[in-house]
């Protein structure tokens, strides 16, 4: 027998993550880092951070099931409607070059972090005795490469408090949590993979305005679905 609850949660989570993450800060982080470093390393660090954030958010949303089911179901649906209307309003007022500005801002931030990391990694010379002292190696950095750690950390911090994280919490409060996690992780993997493979070409040609408008419609659709679904199903 087909588990409709799982399918609905999976499709809802997958759709919401895709329209939330395309052209988002985490998307640009992966795209820019992949142009300078190993694509596999960048993708691995980013997707592990996003998967961890998805699981944590879903568990947090699931914890609200201690509250009466009907309340969390309709409250979360109302929040989806608010999110959708907010995205439509933002998309309507956006300029067509909004994505380019976001890309350049993230690129400048990453460039600054790269320069700081290079300065910290340089050896310090002792001019008085002519001995070159190298920086001690961190056992953690010896196991994981610096690029992996940077990709994981930057992605995790950028995702914290982001719209996709809040959406995951809301979805897990009203839908089947396993379906939310599976759909969310797959959505993140698709978006991050696209960013890593497409790099600058995709990042600079994504219309943030169009994605935001489509995202608003998707959020409203899932909010309206509450009118046709029994909260106890």
From TrEMBL:
It is a multi-pass membrane protein. GO terms for cellular component: Golgi apparatus; membrane. The keyword Transmembrane applies. This is GDT1 family protein. Belongs to the GDT1 family. Residues 108-125 have a biased composition (Basic and acidic residues). The lineage of its organism: Eukaryota, Metazoa, Spiralia, Lophotrochozoa, Annelida. It comes from Capitella teleta. PANTHER family: TRANSMEMBRANE PROTEIN 165 (PTHR12608:SF1), TRANSMEMBRANE PROTEIN HTP-1 RELATED (PTHR12608). The keyword Transmembrane applies. Pfam families: GDT1.
């Amino acid at each position: 027998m087909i588990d409709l609850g799982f399918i609905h949660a999976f499709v809802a989570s997958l759709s919401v993550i895709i329209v939330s993450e395309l052209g988002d800060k985490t998307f640009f982080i992966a795209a820019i880092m992949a142009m300078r470093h190993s694509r596999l390393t960048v993708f691995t660090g980013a997707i592990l951070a996003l998967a961890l954030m998805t699981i944590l958010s879903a568990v947090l949303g699931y914890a609200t099931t201690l509250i009466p089911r009907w309340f969390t179901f309709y409250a979360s649906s109302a929040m989806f409607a608010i999110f959708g209307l907010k995205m439509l309003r933002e998309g309507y007022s956006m300029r067509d070059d909004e994505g380019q500005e976001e890309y350049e801002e993230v690129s400048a931030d990453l460039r600054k972090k790269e320069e700081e990391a290079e300065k910290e990694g340089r050896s310090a010379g002792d001019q008085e005795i002519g001995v070159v002292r190298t920086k001690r190696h961190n056992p953690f950095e010896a196991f994981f490469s610096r690029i992996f750690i940077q990709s994981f950390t930057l992605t995790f911090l950028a995702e914290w408090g982001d719209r996709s994280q809040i959406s995951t919490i809301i979805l897990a409060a009203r839908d089947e949590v396993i379906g939310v996690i599976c759909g969310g992780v797959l959505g993140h993997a698709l978006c991050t993979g696209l960013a890593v493979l497409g790099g600058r070409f995709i990042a600079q040609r994504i219309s943030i305005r169009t994605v935001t408008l489509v995202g608003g419609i998707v959020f409203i659709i899932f909010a309206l679905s509450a009118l046709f679904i029994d909260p106890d199903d």
